[in-house]
Structure formats: structure tokens, C-alpha cells
Amino acid sequence: MIDKPLVGSERDCRRVRELASQGAVILGSSSARYAYEIQELNRLPVEERGELVSVLGTVGVDEFNYGIHIAEAIGRLLGTDAQWVRYLGRGEAGGKYSESYYVQYAGGQSAVYNTFTGTWQPFVLSVMTTKRTYVLQLDSNRLYEALMKQVADYMEEKANLLVDTQALVESVEIMLAGLASRENGGKIVRLDELREDGPAYNGKQFRKGYAAVSGQMYAL
What we know:
Blueprint: H1 10-21, H2 36-43, H3 46-49, E1 52-61, H4 67-78, E2 82-93, E3 96-105, E4 110-117, E5 121-129, E6 133-137, H5 143-155, H6 165-183, E7 189-190, H7 203-213
Parallel strand pairs: 1-4
Antiparallel strand pairs: 1-5, 2-3, 2-7, 3-4, 5-6
């Protein structure tokens, strides 16, 4: 059971796939992937809801540790056929900034995810279908409940919504492709062209920074 983000580099993405191919059971992911609001939308008949065309997702706090929430939430809606990512640009004010990334899927669907650094922002998804637009604001008070219910059902061998390793890894690779695109001036970066020595998120550096600003959580 690995908390989000699952990993932060293409090298580790490939290692996770290797472990899964050898029979390892890897659970984890963002709780936003299993949000009740997304479950409810997915349960609607296509005849009523329409076919999904594009998704706009927003999230705030930091680029990757929280950004992965919205990437995984989008993945829950659009699946695992992301082809390429392009960095769109940055908006900034008061020392805080938001960055936008475009994702193209093999079936023609698209997504844009916005990260916000410096301020917590709610998880919001604007989902456009062939019939209408749905705006979902995920209830942060129920996210962990939604995730752990799926984990418990899996452990008890009940029907569940947990996704396979490929889905979890693809969300990371979407963000890695976005990072590579940003570092290359907005160039399109395909997921299947990601390199092990390409741009990555530094988990050890993040841990040090996170620990420095976190207070004591539990009394010993």
C-alpha cells in the first residue's frame, strides 16, 4: 500500500511495472480517484449523461504531492489512453502561481489540469459530455472514506473499484510528461517517449521540505 504520489520518476514507474508483472500486488493512489462525486457521475447511463469529451481539473497546495490528486481524478473519468502532454503556461499573482497542462487521449478525449502552488484549492472537475457539462467539487471530508472503502472491499474479496498498476503509473507519467514539456518550452511530450534520465520529482527533497513545515501530529 503506497500513498500518493506512487512514485516520481520514469525509472521508478518502470520498476513498479516490473514488480507488478512478477505478481506483486500494489495498492495505493490518490483518494480523489474514488471520490463519491466521480462514482455517481460514472454510474449514470451514457444515454442520460452523454459520452465524455473533455475534463478540466483544478487543485492547489503544490505541484506534485497535491497535483497528482487531480491527475488521478481525471484518470478515473477518462481511463488510461493518454498519449501526450503539453505545458500551456503560468498565471501568477501575489507570489503564488497556477500552471496549466493539456493532455490528449487516444480516443479523442482531452483534459486540462491546473496546479496551484502556495494556497490550498478545492478539487474541482468540469466534465463536458456530448449532452451537457457537469461541475463536481469533491468533498474533501469524505475522500479518505471513499478510498478506504474500496481497499476494505478488496481485502474482503468483494467487488471494488481499485484500478490496476498501469492506471496508477499513467497518472504519474502524465505529470512527468507535463514537467518535461515545461522544461522544454511547451513542446509536446509523448508518454511513450519518457526517458529514465528525464525530468523527475525529487521525493527526498520534498520530504525534507514537508517535514520542515509540518507540526507534530502525534504525542509519543
